[in-house]
Design goal:
Helices cover 8% and strands 19% of the residues. It has 1 helix and 13 strands.
Length: 190
């Protein structure tokens, strides 16, 4: 892992990314691959299609951000926070999401594959056609969250709470569900 990115370098990447999104010739897609962005606050930013692969984002904050199609492949998001953000088509693959906290965040067509999200909290968030396959969500909480066609196939959701969750067509094929708490789970076969 590299040293913590300085503010000037960070600001330049964000500025160039905005230009790239606006199709300006001098624009460059934000690529934070392998960067140390621990404790960084991403607030009110358009980070569509940004790359955070193998980045250290421990205890970082994403508040009111558009992260559509961003990649977090093998990223460390331990104790990070997502609040009021759009995570449509975001890829969390082999990422460390231990004790991640999400509140009022939208995950549509997002991919959580081979992630460790032990002890994470997803509060009052929305999940539509999201894939949580072959991952660890033990002791996690999805309190007050809304689910539609969400797939937890092959994942460990033991000791996980879906309290007051609106769960529609939740797929739990080969999932570990021991002591999972929920008001109502509707599976694909019902």
């Amino acid at each position: 892992m590299t040293n913590q990115m300085d503010d000037a370098e960070f600001d330049k990447i964000i500025e160039n990314h905005q230009k790239w999104l606006d199709n300006k010739i001098e624009g460059v897609r934000a690529d934070f691959t392998g960067q140390d962005l621990s404790y960084v606050k991403f607030k009110d930013l358009n980070l569509r299609r940004a790359i955070f692969d193998r980045a250290n984002l421990e205890s970082s904050l994403f508040e009111n951000c558009d992260l559509t199609e961003a990649n977090f492949i093998q990223a460390n998001l331990t104790t990070a926070t997502f609040s009021k953000s759009n995570c449509t088509e975001v890829a969390f693959i082999q990422a460390n999401l231990v004790e991640l906290f999400c509140k009022d965040t939208i995950f549509t067509d997002a991919i959580f594959n081979l992630v460790d999200a032990t002890g994470s909290t997803f509060y009052d968030s929305k999940f539509e056609k999201t894939s949580f396959t072959f991952s660890i969500f033990s002791n996690a909480s999805f309190e007050d969250s809304v689910f539609w066609q969400t797939d937890f196939s092959g994942s460990d959701v033991s000791e996980t709470s879906f309290t007051r969750g609106n769960i529609s067509q939740l797929i739990l094929t080969n999932a570990i569900t021991q002591h999972t708490h929920s008001m109502k789970i509707i599976t694909e076969t019902e």
